[in-house]
Design a protein that fits this description.
Layout (H helix, E strand, L loop, with lengths): L16 E4 L6 H17 L6 E5 L5 H14 L4 E4 L5 H11 L3 E5 L8 E7 L8 H13 L15 E4 L2 H10 L3 H6 L4 E4 L9 H7 L4 E3 L21 H10 L3 E5 L6 E4 L8 H14 L6 E5 L5 H8 L4 E4 L7 H6 L2 E6 L3 E4 L8 H15 L3 H12 L3 E8 L4 H9 L5 E2 L2 E7 L4 E5 L4 E6 L5 E8 L2 H26 L2
Helix pairs in contact: 1-2, 1-4, 3-5, 9-10, 14-15
Length: 483
């Protein structure tokens, strides 16, 4: 079965375990998960402390302190952040300290009612499936016999300022002279999340004219999901216009994803920013290694990689597949469609703050606007436009996707199919360079359809055909169940 997920009481998806607070994500379930983490660490004889942090979501800090109580009960030394910090900051801290594990309480860009847990290895990479599967299995095996009682050992708990080492890393990784000399004016929107007092702090420290909005800590994120999509950046758009800014830079709820507005207040698709930064990093920065991308990411990245004489490595969706390649140096630049970018010399993890600042550096170094850079990119590599559509997950959807994956496609939307891949949903690549992917989200109850084509008209036709196929398969599955 390609599409259906293994049914467990606690499930780690492509970016951790997430759930609605008070429903799946409860204090009791958090203690179950952290207790399972402690058991796995003890069984593996993994020495060292565990670093814990949290985002600005409702109860995140309290969940983090529950984790401290559970881990110290098991005799494990813990270090908890003195404030909410971005996820890449937690990843950097784990790596810098040589800790056994990192635990981040966040649901990233999900709506405010969600919370979640991300685990990080000693190398600062997202936990591999081997570790999260072991935690899931431990939770499931002890579900009925779990004793929800812990005695914390306060002498094993330490509080630390995790931000400074990460900020120093950011400081050292950006060409500030270029940004300052270009005279850029920048507007910043951390979307009420953990990147406040990070991206704006370093810009202001270097004398860059910076205009900031949404810098307060709001667990409801202004009433919408803290995701860097165009509809959520109205406030930043107004600020760019008001300040006559050259760029608008946004980060999501936990700071690992980015959003960009140009000086005309237009939201630039993440795939285009990824392609531009990939070329900039390879050509200008001379970042060594191959280029990695997930199967849902723009094929402009492929064209850039090949144009620069670099190998292209494709992985399933989920940055946990790319992070070890960054850590080993096999991959120098890694990207995923949902505004995730990792650069090996910086961190083996996506970092929205670093990516946003790289956009400012790129514009400053190239001395051209984003609009000019995009036109030049298309002139060299051809035009590709992409889109992601999210559909609500029905009871019949997983089986419907399995039904579609079992088919052999010779054509799609009137174009010859040249490649069919079923390792992560159903991916079809077409003879004209376009492609479509349907897969279940690993973090939300949704079916996601990704598509890319050489024109907007062609893209629309592909999305319509994909939705029609899914709807038909869902109806067929419903008929089968009702017999």
């Amino acid at each position: 079965m390609v599409a259906s997920r293994r049914v467990t009481m606690i499930h780690f998806g492509t970016s951790g375990w997430r759930g609605v607070v008070g429903e799946e994500f409860t204090f009791s379930n958090v203690r179950r998960v952290v207790d399972a983490v402690a058991m796995v660490l003890t069984r593996q004889a993994t020495g060292g402390e565990v670093v814990i942090s949290y985002d600005t979501r409702l109860l995140s800090e309290k969940f983090a302190r529950e984790a401290v109580a559970v881990l110290t009960h098991h005799g494990i030394h813990t270090v908890i952040s003195d404030r909410d910090v971005p996820t890449p900051c937690l990843a950097h801290s784990v790596r810098e300290r040589g800790a056994a594990l990192g635990i981040m309480f966040t649901a990233s860009h999900n709506p405010p009612e969600y919370n979640g847990v991300k685990l990080y290895t000693r190398r600062g990479t997202p936990a591999p499936h081997e570790l999260t599967d072991a935690v899931e299995a431990e939770v499931a095996a002890r579900w009925a016999t779990f004793e929800d009682f812990f005695v914390p050992q306060r002498q094993l708990a330490t509080t630390a300022a995790l931000a400074e080492g990460y900020i120093a890393r950011i400081e050292a990784g950006i060409d500030w002279d270029a940004i300052v000399s270009a005279g850029l004016v920048i507007a910043v929107d951390p979307l009420f999340g953990t990147a406040r007092e990070f991206i704006d702090r370093v810009l202001l420290a270097h004398g860059v004219p910076t205009h900031v909005i949404h810098t307060t800590k709001d667990p409801y994120f202004g009433g919408y999901a803290p995701e860097c999509v165009a509809q959520n950046l109205a406030g930043l758009r107004d600020k760019v216009r008001e300040a006559h800014a050259d760029l608008g830079l946004a980060t999501d709820g936990d700071g690992d994803r980015f959003g960009v507005l140009d000086r005309r207040c237009r939201a630039i698709p993440a795939n285009l920013i990824i392609a531009l930064l990939t070329e900039y990093l390879l050509q200008r920065r001379r970042v060594p290694g191959a280029v990695g991308r997930t199967c849902a990411t723009t094929r402009l990245v492929d064209r850039v990689a090949h144009g620069q004489g670099r190998q292209l490595i494709e992985t399933p969706v989920g940055f946990s597949h790319l992070a070890p390649l960054l850590d080993s140096g096999e991959v120098g630049v890694a990207a995923e469609e949902s505004a995730g970018l990792g650069v090996a010399p910086h961190l083996p993890e996506r970092d929205g703050i670093y990516a946003a600042l790289l956009v400012a550096e790129m514009v400053a170094v190239e001395r051209r606007s984003l609009d000019e850079l995009i036109r030049s990119l298309f002139a060299r590599y051809g035009t590709l436009v992409s889109r992601r559509v999210q559909l609500p997950l029905k009871d019949t959807t997983p089986a419907a996707l399995d039904r579609l994956a079992a088919r052999t496609f010779t054509e799609f939307a009137g174009i010859l199919v040249t490649r069919q891949e079923r390792s992560d949903g159903l991916l079809l690549e077409l003879a004209d360079g376009s492609w479509v992917l349907g897969r279940l989200s690993g973090t939300e109850p949704k079916l996601r359809i990704y598509a890319e084509a050489t024109s907007s008209r062609r893209l629309l036709a592909m999305v319509r055909e994909a939705r029609r196929l899914v709807t038909t398969a869902e109806e067929e599955e419903g008929h089968v169940r009702n017999r």
